[in-house]
Automatic annotation (TrEMBL):
UniProt-listed SUPFAM superfamilies: Dihydrofolate reductase-like
InterPro entries cross-referenced by the UniProt entry: DHFR-like_dom_sf (IPR024072), RibDG_C (IPR002734)
All residue ranges annotated as the Bacterial bifunctional deaminase-reductase C-terminal domain in the record: 87-169
Gene Ontology biological process terms in this record: riboflavin biosynthetic process
Entry superkingdom: Bacteria
Any Pfam family the entry gives: RibD_C
GO molecular function, one term: 5-amino-6-(5-phosphoribosylamino)uracil reductase activity
Lineage: Bacteria, Bacillati, Actinomycetota, Actinomycetes, Micrococcales
Protein name per the record: Dihydrofolate reductase
Amino acid sequence: MGAVVMYASVSVDGFIADAADQPGPLFDWLTNGDVPLDASGALRVSQPSYEYTRPYWDRIGATVVGRHVFDLTDGWEGQPPSGVDHVIVVTHRQPPEGWDRTTPFHFVDDVAAAVALARDLAGDRIVEVAAGDVGGQALAAGLVDEVRMDVVPVVLGTGKRYFGSLDGQHLLEDPDAVIRGDRVLHLRYQVRRRPAS
């Protein structure tokens, strides 16, 4: 099975959005470069960001998000983002009225069940878990193998935390990737596993 990766762009002070759910400059690095990141040409990044991000995106088989992200994006209008095959939405609510249930979106009411379904659907490809509350829950449950952060040089001060409301200490290994892009620092950490007792 593929790795489970918690991922998002994040401010230097650890926020993935401001208090009004706006990313502010957190995604500017995705549009300020010369190299097209996807077929649309709308996303253009620096060469180092392309070399780090594109291979990762190509390996994602399923993405796990919370209902809040799903609602903010209007469910991506039924089309998973960035060519991902499946989106698993963690929610206790039913899909929106009139939602086309033939789309590759799956609604699950438990983080562990969502990650398990995502792993089944992704096969040997990566399962991406969106940072925030759902990502923090997955990390706390020991379900995350790797943490990826695109650290943007801005201090938001308040907002939605990268690790959500995670309580307690979780150790990561030393970063095994530190890539400098234009207005972004790409970091990758493996999650340190606790010894079995």
